[in-house]
Amino acid sequence: MLNNETLLTQLEALFPSDLSNADFSFDLLTVEVESSKLRTLIATLQKDDSLGFAFLTLIGGVHYPEDVDREFAVVYHIHSWKHKIRLRLKAFLPLSNPSIDSICDIYPSANWMERETYDFYGIIFTNHPDLRRILNEDSMDYFPLRKEYTLEDGTREDKDDRFFGRF
Amino acid sequence: MGKIDDEKVINGEGYQLTTLDKAIGLARANSVWPLPFATSCCGIEFMATMGSAYDMSRFGMERLSFSPRQADLLIVAGTISKKLGPVLKQVYEQMAEPKWVLSVGACASSGGIFDTYSVLQGIDRIIPVDVYVPGCPPRPEQIIDGVMNIHKLVKKESIRRRYSAEYKDLMKEYKIELKEDNVK
Amino acid sequence: MNKETAPIIESPSEFYNSRETIDGDIATINFGPTHPATHGIFQNILKVDGEKIISSEQTVGYIHRAFEKLAERRPYNQITPITDRLNYCSSPINNLGWHMTVEKLIQAEIPKRVQYMRVIIMELARIADHLICDSVVGVDTGALTSFFYPFQEREKIYELYEEICGARLTTNIGRIGGFERDFTPVFHTKLKAFLKSFPKVFNEWDSMLSRNRIFMDRTRGTGPISPERALAYGLTGPNLRAAGVDYDVRVMHPYSSYEDFDFIIPVGVNGDTYDRFMVRQEEIRQSLRIIEQAYGNLPEGEFKADVPDFYLPDKAAVYNNMEALIYHFKIVMGEMEIPSGEIYHSVEGGNGELGYYLISDGGRTPYRLQFRRPCFIYYQAYPEMITGQTISDAVITLSSMNVIAGELDA
């Protein structure tokens, strides 16, 4: 049975130079991966029967507007049922070129999760079979979950910002 | 109503005097066929109202019609997002006269707790609404109260309402095109 | 029965599969978004040849309410009402999952009594969710009576929720650190009555459908999915267990004292609609078993944890004690001190693994909160399940998958 420390050792053995910032907080190993190497890493983990990461739990995006050149983070959670262990992989992307390889052919469940991340943040997943908006209308021209946009619709004329402390 | 002579009634010569509006209003009110446009949590409370504890069939409303052409009452229960707005408007336009709209829940009445970029802040922005039932979700008793208010409106409504100027102005305000035979 | 001895019943799709084309004319049919048989608002555009479905395309997002953006605006105790509206048929599970996530972040010690109370409420919610799903499968095959019987039982579960939190459907149950009040005497009476009366009513309703010739002919062989494809598509919950894979978050990563209870995980054989229906029926029985064990061994103790920073103090203390007044003010205004960190916690919802990925930067609202919504992820498998089937099979497959629109779109 693996635990977080032995998992990290195995990952470092497989990919000696692409990992950084390993974190064990709250009992879940988090590792940062370079965005160009992420696809190879996930493909290796999925095929490796001894590790057994056969289940993709979640793909999500985060926006850090203050970190220049590392504005977007794409976070992948994968789960090994064999060892009852979860792994979180993060890839940071710059605002000027927020694109990363899609993993739809490795895990088919990534399809809609990547579309949702594109819809909310504008992160482009290259080689995705059908990258278009999923939850918002197709005609929407901005990416709503980025930090610079407000929660409410900007075109409302009946909500007076003065009453809500926004000037 | 005119006075009824008891003897004549017992001998089978009874008659009642009323106006056509009232008789038709009574018939319409007790057999409203709803179209449940149930999107989210209020839809489940609507289903509970249809269940046997808070029976809606005692109002004559157990025949749900999912086809707008055969429905009288559009019950909008749940959040309507901007993506769904055109669909709702199309369903409303497809309904035949006379029609009423009951907006169930806070989300349908005003957007509810979801004051966000994707939620329509109240269906009365796109279709005219007759009765609003607030609540999140409203209890079945409240939904029944809303339905009974609709019945009050139905009973009092003139059968020539759709030809009135007030109605035409209302439809113009919502940019809903009236068909040819309504313009008499 | 196991895979070798189970008889294979030929479904209408077998007939359709044996012919190259039915009438050669491909028609496009719009199934939704407002449709009586899609229990929720989602659209499927089907391309059919005769009645056989060649391909389908989904459009979702008709009830997108921006929960994740909304959560960035709200303090931690105000996010509970939003989680209610994810899978609104079993909202206590969502609420308590969120409370457990925050408690994991603040590393609070939760008393055993609270954990057992949570288990009772979560299993009641699971029963309520499966009752709706299975009654709707019955309705879609034509048995309208199967809708009214379970809804009466749901009313009893609503009464139990009302005793604890005051609401029927969107419960906002519990607090970070426990519950608002202990189980009242009325709750004990009602729960005992429920545990006594529900099995009989459930068996009566179950016997109407589960060995019914018409129902079995309608549902066996429709919407099948193999275990490998189910895993690849990220299915969880009863849909995955019907395909034959026994993954249950309560067993793999036990939370809230689930390891103390003895229950089995029902697993299906073919992954078709009948198996999904039967897995849910059996899960209702197992949930009853868990409730009986939890209620029978309910430990004494506090109904709340010792987290004064997050749990509203007693009103009497607020009016008399300065410290309690300050805590009350801070909690109500949402100025709680949350440590910064990233956390992922998941619970077994009515539809599978419901996960919360929370990034906190130490502020009063989350920096990022993402919900791992099982419906959203497994609805991608729907086209593969219905290709080659008839339209009426597509309807039953959709209702047996229990796609709740609130969880699909968030």
Rg of chain A is: 18 Å
Mean pLDDT of chain B: 87
CATH topology of chain A: Beta Polymerase, domain 2
- What structural category characterises the helix and strand content of chain A? alpha/beta
**Largest beta sheet: strand ordering of chain A:** 1-2-5-4-3
Describe this structure in words.
The complex is a heterotrimer of chains A (167), B (184) and C (410). Chain A has 3 helices and 7 strands; from the N terminus they run αββαββββαβ. Chain A is an alpha/beta fold and 167 residues long. With 184 residues, chain B is α/β, with parallel strands linked by helices. In chain B, helix 3 (41-50) crosses helix 6. Chain B starts with 5 loop residues before the first helix and ends in an 11-residue tail after the last helix. With 410 residues, chain C is mainly alpha-helical. Chain C folds into 2 domains: 12-59, no CATH class; 67-311 and 338-409, Cytochrome-c3 Hydrogenase, chain B (Orthogonal Bundle), CATH 1.10.645. In chain C, 48% of the residues lie in helices and 11% in strands. Chain C has helices at residues 12-17, 67-71, 80-84, 91-106, 112-140, 145-164, 185-209, 213-219, 227-232, 238-243, 249-252, 273-296, 315-320, 322-332, 374-378, 382-386, 391-400, 405-409; strands at residues 26-31, 43-49, 52-59, 341-349, 352-360, 368-372. Chain C has a 3-stranded antiparallel β-sheet, with no helix packed on it. A 3-stranded antiparallel β-sheet of chain C has the order 4-5-6. The interface between A and C is medium-sized, with 33 and 37 residues.
Set out the fold topology.
The complex is a heterotrimer of chains A (about 170), B (about 180) and C (about 400).
Chain A: H1 4-14, E1 19-23, E2 29-33, H2 38-47, E3 55-63, E4 72-80, E5 85-93, E6 99-101, H3 110-121, E7 124-126
Parallel strand pairs in A: 2-5, 6-7
Antiparallel strand pairs in A: 1-2, 3-4, 4-5
Chain B: H1 6-10, H2 20-29, E1 34-38, H3 41-50, E2 73-77, H4 85-94, E3 100-104, H5 106-110, E4 131-133, H6 140-156, H7 165-173
Parallel strand pairs in B: 1-2, 2-3, 3-4
Helix pairs in contact in B: 2-6, 3-6
Chain C: H1 12-17, E1 26-31, E2 43-49, E3 52-59, H2 67-71, H3 80-84, H4 91-106, H5 112-140, H6 145-164, H7 185-209, H8 213-219, H9 227-232, H10 238-243, H11 249-252, H12 273-296, H13 315-320, H14 322-332, E4 341-349, E5 352-360, E6 368-372, H15 374-378, H16 382-386, H17 391-400, H18 405-409
Antiparallel strand pairs in C: 1-2, 2-3, 4-5, 5-6
Helix pairs in contact in C: 4-5, 5-6, 5-12, 5-17, 6-7
